Every structure is written in C-alpha cells, then in structure tokens.
Amino acid sequence: MFKGKKGKVVLMLMMSMLVVFAAACGNNANSGNTENNGGAATNNVATNAPTEEAAKLSGEIKIDGSSTVFPLTEAAAEEFNKEHADVRVPVGVSGTGGGFKQFCAAEIAIADASRPIKDEEATACKDAGIEYTELSVAFDGLSVVVSKDNDFIDHLTVEELNKIFMTGSTVKTWKDVRDTFPAEPIVMFSPGADSGTYDYFNEAILDKAGIRNDEAISFSEDDNALVQGVSGSKYGIGYFGFAYFEENADKLKVVPIDGGSGPIEPTYDTIKDGSYAPLSRPLFIYVNNKELERPEVKEFAKFYIDNIGALAGEVGYVALPDEQYATEAAKIQ
User: Residue span of the signal peptide, if any (predicted)?
Assistant: First the structure.
C-alpha cells in the first residue's frame, strides 16, 4: 500500500499517531476512574463532615439583670456574634432582682447578677421547676464617688458611710458627718432596690440595716443617671460599680474607704487581692440548665467563660484567676 521511501515515512507517522491516540484513551480511562474514586472520596468527606449550614448556630438567647454585669455580658455577646452571626443575644438591664424575677419565671435563659441569688429567689426557681448553674465571671469593686469639684473629701470610713446612707439617719449636712466638712446639704444618689449593687452596699456597709429613703436621696436603676447626678453636684455622693467610675473618671473622684485598715482606693490590684474591703465583690451569671441543652446557649456559656477574663479589663473589671475559670468551665460540661 505504501511504496518507496515516502510511503515508509507516511506509514511510520500513522503508526506514531495510533500509539499517541491509544495512550490518550488509556489516560482518559484512568482519569475517569481517578475522578470517580476522587468523587466518591469527596462525597464521603462531605457526608461525614457537617455542612457549613449544619455547623451554624441560630436562635435567640435572652439575658437580663444586673446593670453592673451588663458591660461584661454585652462585650461577650458582641464577640460571640462575630463567630455566630445568626444567634441573637439581647441583653436587658432590669437590675439583679428584676433579672431573677424573669429568670425564675422562665422568661430568660441567663440572669446577670452582681450578688449571689437570695434564698427566696432560689425557692421561687425551685417551685417553678427551674434548675440552674451559677458561674462566677469577674471581680468588681463597688466604688463610692463624688464630683471632681469636691475639694474637701480625701476619704470616708465605713462608720461615716453609715451616717450618710443608713435608714433612720438624721444627718443632713456634710458637717454632720465630720466637723471639718462644710455645712452644706448632702445630695445622695443610689441604685434602686432591684439592683444587686443596692443589696451589696446595704449588706457590706450598712450590715443590712437598710438605705434611707427621704428627700435627700435619689434612686435610679440607670448607672449613667447616677453618674450625671453626682458629677453635677459639688456636694453629691453616690456609689456604683468600678467600671462606671473608670468610664467617667474625667468628671468623678473616687473616694478611698477605710474599712479598718486605713483608706484604700479601688484599683485592679486592690480589688483582686481583696484589700479593698469590704467593697470587693464577685460577679455572676446564672444559666437555666434546661436552656443549656440548646446548643447555642451551651456554646455561648462556654464562650463567655473562655473569653471573659480577657474582656474584663477592657470594660473596667478584674479577671478571676485562670484556675477559677477552669473550675467554672467544668460546670458547663
């Protein structure tokens, strides 16, 4: 068929083309098998691993309670939302007592508290069939503050705070508190009765005698309103969490308190080591155990304890020791 030298060349070219074509077919067949095997492997991985949609958390975690704990929980919620954008975490500020009322009525999943739960609140939860987990989250130093314009107070004793704030007190002017103070009316500001800060001050300073309730004192559940009240009066005095003082240190002066060992000012160190006595206190969140069965609530509680130590300083609080956070984390498991 192919004659001569030219024919041989053509024959050789055709044979080479056939070899290349056969190799290509073989490679395609092998590629097909590889793709099928690879596809099967890929499908197996996709089947065994959760899809992105399945891995996402969603839902709502309602939280309410202490205005003191609010900045901590708000910070935790904001950071949590960066990782879990489909979970809504509204945080209310009804005071510690108001938060426990909602908590024991199963209206919220988590209660912020600036004091431990009271016996009557624990009974209300028990009667409603609500079991809970108490988690310590940070330290706070309840701070007594006056206006920046106050130029006569360098410190106060616990006894003097009793003269000012205790129910039944007849003290009206600063001179009634200390002879060297001016004869000017005292203007007092206090958190409301639903506040854990109110309860703690009453217990730690007034030995549960109660806070006076007359024309000389104004109450508010809003710490910012207390800041405005004290800062706007040269003869004003009030108290609230350390974080709110830190945030408003440009217009307030913190008062060192003498609890028997000399005047101590609240700082990160004095709050953490307990030397700022008797006004150093732990802060808490309470989580409904039934709610912890919801994956988004459990994940948030774990996230809170794992991260709040780092966040605490950013919002004016003092972190617990690392070993304490490990203890709290174990409770969630």
Answer: 1-22
